[in-house]
Write a structure and sequence with these properties.
Blueprint: H1 3-15, H2 21-34, H3 38-44, H4 50-58, E1 70-78, E2 82-89, E3 94-101, H5 109-123, E4 133-139, E5 142-148, E6 152-154, H6 155-160, H7 167-186, E7 189-190, E8 199-202, E9 207-209, E10 216-217, H8 252-255, H9 263-279, H10 289-298, H11 303-308, H12 313-322, H13 334-353, H14 359-364
Antiparallel strand pairs: 1-2, 2-3, 3-5, 4-5, 6-8, 7-10, 8-9
Helix pairs in contact: 2-3, 7-9, 7-13, 9-12
Length: 389
Protein backbone atom coordinates (compact mmCIF):
# COMPACT_ATOMS: atom_id res chain seq x y z
CA UNK A 1 0.00 0.00 0.00
CA UNK A 2 1.39 3.39 -1.03
CA UNK A 3 1.81 6.39 1.23
CA UNK A 4 -1.36 8.10 0.01
CA UNK A 5 -3.45 4.94 0.39
CA UNK A 6 -1.96 4.45 3.87
CA UNK A 7 -2.92 7.99 4.90
CA UNK A 8 -6.39 7.57 3.43
CA UNK A 9 -6.89 4.38 5.44
CA UNK A 10 -5.67 6.14 8.58
CA UNK A 11 -8.25 8.89 8.04
CA UNK A 12 -11.00 6.31 7.46
CA UNK A 13 -10.11 4.50 10.68
CA UNK A 14 -10.39 7.76 12.61
CA UNK A 15 -13.65 8.64 10.88
CA UNK A 16 -15.16 5.24 11.70
CA UNK A 17 -13.97 5.23 15.30
CA UNK A 18 -11.43 2.41 14.99
CA UNK A 19 -8.68 4.84 16.01
CA UNK A 20 -9.02 8.03 18.04
CA UNK A 21 -7.79 11.34 16.65
CA UNK A 22 -5.03 12.03 19.24
CA UNK A 23 -3.51 8.59 18.57
CA UNK A 24 -3.62 9.21 14.81
CA UNK A 25 -1.98 12.64 15.19
CA UNK A 26 0.76 11.09 17.32
CA UNK A 27 1.35 8.43 14.65
CA UNK A 28 1.59 11.10 11.96
CA UNK A 29 4.17 13.10 13.91
CA UNK A 30 6.20 10.02 14.70
CA UNK A 31 6.01 8.95 11.08
CA UNK A 32 7.32 12.30 9.90
CA UNK A 33 10.20 12.11 12.38
CA UNK A 34 11.16 8.52 11.57
CA UNK A 35 10.04 8.41 7.92
CA UNK A 36 7.91 5.37 8.65
CA UNK A 37 4.29 4.78 7.67
CA UNK A 38 1.83 5.69 10.44
CA UNK A 39 -0.01 2.38 10.25
CA UNK A 40 3.23 0.42 10.49
CA UNK A 41 3.91 2.43 13.64
CA UNK A 42 0.39 1.57 14.87
CA UNK A 43 1.37 -2.11 14.75
CA UNK A 44 4.75 -1.43 16.37
CA UNK A 45 3.01 0.51 19.16
CA UNK A 46 0.50 -2.29 19.75
CA UNK A 47 -2.58 -0.44 18.51
CA UNK A 48 -3.29 -3.18 15.95
CA UNK A 49 -1.90 -6.62 15.28
CA UNK A 50 -0.40 -7.06 11.83
CA UNK A 51 -3.22 -9.54 11.05
CA UNK A 52 -5.86 -6.98 12.05
CA UNK A 53 -4.20 -4.30 9.95
CA UNK A 54 -4.12 -6.64 6.95
CA UNK A 55 -7.84 -7.28 7.43
CA UNK A 56 -8.60 -3.55 7.68
CA UNK A 57 -6.68 -3.00 4.46
CA UNK A 58 -8.67 -5.72 2.69
CA UNK A 59 -11.98 -4.18 3.78
CA UNK A 60 -10.65 -0.66 3.12
CA UNK A 61 -11.23 0.46 6.69
CA UNK A 62 -14.87 -0.57 6.81
CA UNK A 63 -16.35 -1.55 10.15
CA UNK A 64 -17.31 -5.13 9.25
CA UNK A 65 -16.91 -8.38 11.20
CA UNK A 66 -14.61 -11.23 10.35
CA UNK A 67 -16.86 -14.13 9.37
CA UNK A 68 -15.85 -17.58 10.70
CA UNK A 69 -15.02 -20.01 7.90
CA UNK A 70 -14.42 -17.28 5.33
CA UNK A 71 -11.35 -15.34 4.25
CA UNK A 72 -12.24 -11.78 3.28
CA UNK A 73 -10.66 -10.99 -0.08
CA UNK A 74 -11.78 -7.39 -0.37
CA UNK A 75 -14.66 -5.00 -0.93
CA UNK A 76 -16.92 -5.85 -3.89
CA UNK A 77 -19.30 -2.91 -3.53
CA UNK A 78 -20.72 -0.24 -1.26
CA UNK A 79 -24.19 1.11 -0.76
CA UNK A 80 -25.98 3.53 1.46
CA UNK A 81 -27.09 0.82 3.88
CA UNK A 82 -24.71 -2.08 3.30
CA UNK A 83 -21.28 -3.11 2.12
CA UNK A 84 -20.65 -6.18 -0.01
CA UNK A 85 -17.48 -8.19 0.60
CA UNK A 86 -15.86 -10.76 -1.62
CA UNK A 87 -14.94 -13.74 0.53
CA UNK A 88 -13.46 -17.20 0.12
CA UNK A 89 -15.37 -20.09 1.65
CA UNK A 90 -12.57 -22.21 3.13
CA UNK A 91 -14.61 -25.41 3.28
CA UNK A 92 -16.20 -25.20 -0.17
CA UNK A 93 -13.18 -23.60 -1.83
CA UNK A 94 -15.23 -21.00 -3.70
CA UNK A 95 -15.86 -17.28 -3.61
CA UNK A 96 -19.08 -15.84 -2.19
CA UNK A 97 -20.46 -12.35 -1.66
CA UNK A 98 -21.23 -11.30 1.91
CA UNK A 99 -23.51 -8.32 2.34
CA UNK A 100 -23.17 -6.65 5.74
CA UNK A 101 -25.62 -4.09 7.09
CA UNK A 102 -23.71 -0.97 8.10
CA UNK A 103 -23.34 -0.48 11.84
CA UNK A 104 -25.16 2.85 11.81
CA UNK A 105 -28.33 0.93 10.89
CA UNK A 106 -28.07 -1.58 13.75
CA UNK A 107 -30.84 0.23 15.63
CA UNK A 108 -32.94 1.00 12.54
CA UNK A 109 -35.83 -1.48 12.52
CA UNK A 110 -36.94 -0.44 9.02
CA UNK A 111 -33.47 -0.92 7.53
CA UNK A 112 -33.06 -4.29 9.23
CA UNK A 113 -36.48 -5.39 8.02
CA UNK A 114 -35.64 -4.40 4.44
CA UNK A 115 -32.28 -6.20 4.65
CA UNK A 116 -33.90 -9.40 5.94
CA UNK A 117 -36.72 -9.20 3.43
CA UNK A 118 -34.35 -8.97 0.48
CA UNK A 119 -32.35 -11.91 1.85
CA UNK A 120 -35.42 -14.10 2.28
CA UNK A 121 -36.65 -13.21 -1.21
CA UNK A 122 -33.37 -14.10 -2.88
CA UNK A 123 -32.91 -17.31 -0.89
CA UNK A 124 -36.24 -18.53 -2.28
CA UNK A 125 -35.40 -17.70 -5.91
CA UNK A 126 -33.29 -19.66 -8.39
CA UNK A 127 -32.78 -18.43 -11.95
CA UNK A 128 -29.69 -18.12 -14.10
CA UNK A 129 -30.28 -14.38 -14.59
CA UNK A 130 -31.00 -13.53 -10.93
CA UNK A 131 -28.24 -13.44 -8.32
CA UNK A 132 -28.77 -16.32 -5.88
CA UNK A 133 -29.12 -15.88 -2.14
CA UNK A 134 -27.73 -18.54 0.19
CA UNK A 135 -28.29 -17.76 3.87
CA UNK A 136 -28.79 -14.90 6.29
CA UNK A 137 -27.74 -14.57 9.89
CA UNK A 138 -25.74 -12.57 12.42
CA UNK A 139 -22.02 -12.49 13.20
CA UNK A 140 -20.89 -10.63 16.31
CA UNK A 141 -24.33 -9.03 16.42
CA UNK A 142 -24.13 -7.82 12.80
CA UNK A 143 -26.62 -8.82 10.10
CA UNK A 144 -24.95 -10.58 7.16
CA UNK A 145 -26.30 -12.16 4.01
CA UNK A 146 -24.38 -14.71 1.91
CA UNK A 147 -24.98 -14.52 -1.82
CA UNK A 148 -23.65 -15.97 -5.04
CA UNK A 149 -20.54 -14.05 -6.04
CA UNK A 150 -20.77 -12.66 -9.56
CA UNK A 151 -17.34 -11.90 -10.97
CA UNK A 152 -18.38 -9.13 -13.30
CA UNK A 153 -19.06 -5.44 -13.69
CA UNK A 154 -22.30 -3.51 -13.67
CA UNK A 155 -23.61 -1.89 -16.82
CA UNK A 156 -23.32 1.41 -14.96
CA UNK A 157 -19.58 0.88 -14.46
CA UNK A 158 -19.14 0.00 -18.13
CA UNK A 159 -21.09 3.06 -19.25
CA UNK A 160 -19.07 5.26 -16.92
CA UNK A 161 -15.86 3.88 -18.45
CA UNK A 162 -17.04 4.95 -21.90
CA UNK A 163 -18.15 1.56 -23.19
CA UNK A 164 -20.59 1.75 -26.06
CA UNK A 165 -23.10 -1.01 -26.77
CA UNK A 166 -24.24 -1.78 -30.28
CA UNK A 167 -27.86 -2.78 -30.79
CA UNK A 168 -27.10 -6.52 -30.85
CA UNK A 169 -25.29 -6.31 -27.52
CA UNK A 170 -28.01 -4.16 -25.96
CA UNK A 171 -30.74 -6.56 -27.08
CA UNK A 172 -28.82 -9.55 -25.75
CA UNK A 173 -28.54 -7.92 -22.32
CA UNK A 174 -32.16 -6.75 -22.24
CA UNK A 175 -33.34 -10.21 -23.29
CA UNK A 176 -31.56 -11.80 -20.31
CA UNK A 177 -32.98 -9.22 -17.89
CA UNK A 178 -36.45 -9.73 -19.37
CA UNK A 179 -36.10 -13.44 -18.62
CA UNK A 180 -35.21 -12.54 -15.04
CA UNK A 181 -38.29 -10.29 -14.83
CA UNK A 182 -40.46 -13.07 -16.21
CA UNK A 183 -39.22 -15.37 -13.47
CA UNK A 184 -39.76 -12.75 -10.76
CA UNK A 185 -43.27 -12.04 -12.05
CA UNK A 186 -44.08 -15.75 -12.02
CA UNK A 187 -43.12 -15.68 -8.35
CA UNK A 188 -45.22 -12.60 -7.63
CA UNK A 189 -42.29 -10.21 -7.26
CA UNK A 190 -41.88 -6.69 -8.69
CA UNK A 191 -38.22 -5.58 -8.63
CA UNK A 192 -38.90 -1.79 -8.65
CA UNK A 193 -35.27 -0.76 -9.17
CA UNK A 194 -34.18 -2.08 -12.57
CA UNK A 195 -31.28 0.05 -13.79
CA UNK A 196 -27.73 -0.35 -15.17
CA UNK A 197 -26.21 -0.38 -11.66
CA UNK A 198 -28.30 -3.44 -10.82
CA UNK A 199 -27.35 -5.47 -13.90
CA UNK A 200 -24.04 -7.31 -13.80
CA UNK A 201 -22.30 -8.85 -16.81
CA UNK A 202 -19.41 -11.26 -16.53
CA UNK A 203 -16.44 -11.84 -18.81
CA UNK A 204 -18.39 -14.86 -20.11
CA UNK A 205 -21.32 -12.58 -21.00
CA UNK A 206 -23.57 -13.95 -18.27
CA UNK A 207 -26.13 -11.37 -17.18
CA UNK A 208 -27.41 -11.15 -13.60
CA UNK A 209 -30.10 -8.94 -12.11
CA UNK A 210 -29.21 -7.99 -8.53
CA UNK A 211 -30.49 -6.02 -5.52
CA UNK A 212 -34.06 -6.74 -4.44
CA UNK A 213 -33.92 -4.10 -1.71
CA UNK A 214 -36.97 -2.33 -3.16
CA UNK A 215 -38.81 -5.44 -4.31
CA UNK A 216 -42.46 -5.93 -3.42
CA UNK A 217 -45.19 -8.48 -3.96
CA UNK A 218 -47.60 -7.86 -6.83
CA UNK A 219 -50.53 -5.82 -5.58
CA UNK A 220 -48.81 -5.01 -2.31
CA UNK A 221 -49.76 -1.40 -1.63
CA UNK A 222 -47.31 -1.17 1.27
CA UNK A 223 -43.96 0.12 0.20
CA UNK A 224 -41.51 -2.59 1.06
CA UNK A 225 -37.88 -1.83 1.66
CA UNK A 226 -36.30 1.22 3.13
CA UNK A 227 -33.99 2.07 0.27
CA UNK A 228 -31.81 -0.20 -1.77
CA UNK A 229 -28.12 0.04 -0.90
CA UNK A 230 -26.28 1.96 -3.58
CA UNK A 231 -29.36 3.56 -5.16
CA UNK A 232 -29.77 7.26 -5.84
CA UNK A 233 -33.34 7.09 -4.68
CA UNK A 234 -36.45 8.89 -3.65
CA UNK A 235 -37.97 7.24 -0.59
CA UNK A 236 -40.22 10.02 0.67
CA UNK A 237 -41.67 12.90 -1.28
CA UNK A 238 -44.30 15.48 -0.39
CA UNK A 239 -46.15 15.07 -3.67
CA UNK A 240 -45.68 11.31 -3.80
CA UNK A 241 -45.07 10.02 -0.28
CA UNK A 242 -44.74 6.41 -1.36
CA UNK A 243 -42.34 6.94 -4.27
CA UNK A 244 -39.37 4.60 -4.17
CA UNK A 245 -36.78 3.70 -6.77
CA UNK A 246 -34.13 5.47 -8.79
CA UNK A 247 -35.69 8.54 -10.35
CA UNK A 248 -33.92 8.33 -13.72
CA UNK A 249 -35.47 4.92 -14.43
CA UNK A 250 -38.80 4.67 -12.59
CA UNK A 251 -42.11 4.39 -14.42
CA UNK A 252 -44.71 7.19 -14.38
CA UNK A 253 -46.94 5.23 -12.00
CA UNK A 254 -43.96 4.61 -9.73
CA UNK A 255 -43.09 8.32 -9.87
CA UNK A 256 -46.66 9.10 -8.79
CA UNK A 257 -46.25 6.80 -5.80
CA UNK A 258 -48.92 4.33 -6.85
CA UNK A 259 -49.07 1.21 -4.74
CA UNK A 260 -50.44 -1.18 -7.37
CA UNK A 261 -47.20 -1.67 -9.29
CA UNK A 262 -46.70 -4.75 -11.42
CA UNK A 263 -44.16 -6.06 -13.89
CA UNK A 264 -45.07 -3.37 -16.42
CA UNK A 265 -43.29 -0.88 -14.17
CA UNK A 266 -40.14 -3.01 -14.34
CA UNK A 267 -40.51 -3.20 -18.13
CA UNK A 268 -40.51 0.62 -18.27
CA UNK A 269 -37.32 0.73 -16.18
CA UNK A 270 -35.73 -1.86 -18.46
CA UNK A 271 -36.72 0.32 -21.42
CA UNK A 272 -34.96 3.30 -19.83
CA UNK A 273 -31.90 1.08 -19.38
CA UNK A 274 -32.07 0.02 -23.03
CA UNK A 275 -32.32 3.68 -24.04
CA UNK A 276 -29.18 4.53 -22.10
CA UNK A 277 -27.27 1.57 -23.57
CA UNK A 278 -27.93 2.50 -27.20
CA UNK A 279 -28.19 6.31 -26.95
CA UNK A 280 -25.47 6.85 -24.34
CA UNK A 281 -27.48 9.17 -22.11
CA UNK A 282 -30.51 9.06 -19.83
CA UNK A 283 -33.95 9.48 -21.41
CA UNK A 284 -34.85 12.30 -19.00
CA UNK A 285 -32.75 14.68 -16.94
CA UNK A 286 -33.31 17.70 -14.73
CA UNK A 287 -31.83 20.02 -12.14
CA UNK A 288 -33.09 17.83 -9.30
CA UNK A 289 -35.14 14.73 -8.55
CA UNK A 290 -38.41 16.68 -8.70
CA UNK A 291 -37.76 17.77 -12.29
CA UNK A 292 -36.86 14.25 -13.33
CA UNK A 293 -39.95 12.82 -11.60
CA UNK A 294 -42.10 15.35 -13.45
CA UNK A 295 -40.47 14.39 -16.76
CA UNK A 296 -41.10 10.70 -16.12
CA UNK A 297 -44.79 11.47 -15.71
CA UNK A 298 -45.31 14.18 -18.35
CA UNK A 299 -42.48 14.41 -20.90
CA UNK A 300 -42.26 12.42 -24.12
CA UNK A 301 -39.14 10.76 -25.46
CA UNK A 302 -37.24 12.88 -27.97
CA UNK A 303 -37.62 11.38 -31.43
CA UNK A 304 -34.93 13.76 -32.65
CA UNK A 305 -32.39 12.29 -30.23
CA UNK A 306 -33.21 8.75 -31.35
CA UNK A 307 -32.97 9.77 -35.01
CA UNK A 308 -29.69 11.60 -34.47
CA UNK A 309 -28.15 8.44 -32.99
CA UNK A 310 -29.24 6.47 -36.08
CA UNK A 311 -31.27 4.06 -33.98
CA UNK A 312 -32.86 1.33 -36.12
CA UNK A 313 -36.65 1.32 -36.54
CA UNK A 314 -36.88 -1.92 -34.57
CA UNK A 315 -34.90 -0.52 -31.66
CA UNK A 316 -36.93 2.68 -31.76
CA UNK A 317 -40.09 0.58 -31.52
CA UNK A 318 -38.78 -1.45 -28.56
CA UNK A 319 -37.86 1.68 -26.61
CA UNK A 320 -41.11 3.52 -27.35
CA UNK A 321 -43.27 0.52 -26.44
CA UNK A 322 -41.34 -0.35 -23.27
CA UNK A 323 -41.40 3.29 -22.11
CA UNK A 324 -45.01 4.16 -22.99
CA UNK A 325 -46.44 6.54 -20.38
CA UNK A 326 -49.67 4.54 -20.13
CA UNK A 327 -48.87 1.09 -18.82
CA UNK A 328 -51.76 -0.35 -20.83
CA UNK A 329 -49.83 0.57 -24.00
CA UNK A 330 -46.54 -1.00 -22.86
CA UNK A 331 -45.61 -4.62 -23.22
CA UNK A 332 -48.02 -6.24 -20.80
CA UNK A 333 -45.76 -9.11 -19.82
CA UNK A 334 -42.08 -10.01 -20.13
CA UNK A 335 -43.20 -12.88 -22.41
CA UNK A 336 -44.41 -10.37 -25.01
CA UNK A 337 -41.12 -8.48 -24.86
CA UNK A 338 -39.06 -11.67 -25.02
CA UNK A 339 -41.05 -12.90 -28.03
CA UNK A 340 -40.50 -9.63 -29.93
CA UNK A 341 -36.76 -9.54 -29.18
CA UNK A 342 -36.33 -13.18 -30.16
CA UNK A 343 -38.27 -12.55 -33.36
CA UNK A 344 -35.95 -9.65 -34.16
CA UNK A 345 -32.90 -11.81 -33.46
CA UNK A 346 -34.31 -14.67 -35.52
CA UNK A 347 -35.03 -12.41 -38.46
CA UNK A 348 -31.62 -10.78 -38.35
CA UNK A 349 -29.76 -14.05 -37.98
CA UNK A 350 -31.73 -15.67 -40.80
CA UNK A 351 -31.36 -12.67 -43.08
CA UNK A 352 -27.71 -11.86 -42.47
CA UNK A 353 -26.00 -15.00 -41.22
CA UNK A 354 -28.11 -17.96 -42.37
CA UNK A 355 -27.07 -20.31 -39.53
CA UNK A 356 -28.52 -23.37 -41.32
CA UNK A 357 -30.81 -24.89 -38.75
CA UNK A 358 -29.03 -23.50 -35.67
CA UNK A 359 -31.72 -20.89 -34.91
CA UNK A 360 -32.93 -22.56 -31.72
CA UNK A 361 -29.40 -22.68 -30.29
CA UNK A 362 -28.72 -19.07 -31.21
CA UNK A 363 -31.99 -17.92 -29.68
CA UNK A 364 -31.30 -19.72 -26.45
CA UNK A 365 -27.90 -18.03 -25.99
CA UNK A 366 -27.63 -15.29 -28.63
CA UNK A 367 -24.76 -12.91 -29.27
CA UNK A 368 -21.81 -13.86 -27.14
CA UNK A 369 -23.19 -16.69 -25.04
CA UNK A 370 -21.02 -18.34 -22.36
CA UNK A 371 -18.57 -20.82 -23.84
CA UNK A 372 -15.73 -23.00 -22.66
CA UNK A 373 -13.25 -20.18 -23.26
CA UNK A 374 -13.44 -17.01 -21.13
CA UNK A 375 -14.40 -13.91 -23.07
CA UNK A 376 -12.84 -10.44 -22.83
CA UNK A 377 -13.28 -8.54 -19.58
CA UNK A 378 -15.39 -5.88 -21.34
CA UNK A 379 -17.41 -8.05 -23.70
CA UNK A 380 -19.24 -5.46 -25.75
CA UNK A 381 -16.78 -2.56 -25.78
CA UNK A 382 -16.23 -0.77 -29.03
CA UNK A 383 -15.26 2.83 -29.74
CA UNK A 384 -15.26 5.63 -27.18
CA UNK A 385 -18.26 7.90 -27.01
CA UNK A 386 -18.52 10.87 -29.34
CA UNK A 387 -17.64 13.39 -26.63
CA UNK A 388 -14.39 11.52 -25.88
CA UNK A 389 -13.06 11.59 -29.41
Amino acid sequence: MGDQEDLKLLALLVHRGALDRPAAEKLLKEGQATRRKPLELAVANGLFTSERLDFLRRVEGEDVPEVPGFDIVGVAGRGGMAIVLRARDRKAGRDVAIKVLRREFDGDAKAKSAFLREAKLLIGLRHENVVAGEKVGTVHGRLIFLQEFVDGRSLQELLKDGTEFDEDAALYIVLQVARALRYLAQNGVVHRDVKPANVLITARNEVKLIDLGFASSVGDGAQSGGGAPGSATVATDAAAPTTVGTVAYISPEQARGQGDLDVRSDIYSLGATLYQLVVGELPFSGQDNQEILAAQILASLSSEVLKSRKISPHMHYFIEKMMAKEREVRYQTPEELIADIEEQIRGKKTLEFRPEGRDSELLKKPFGAPSAQPRPKVPFARRKRRDER
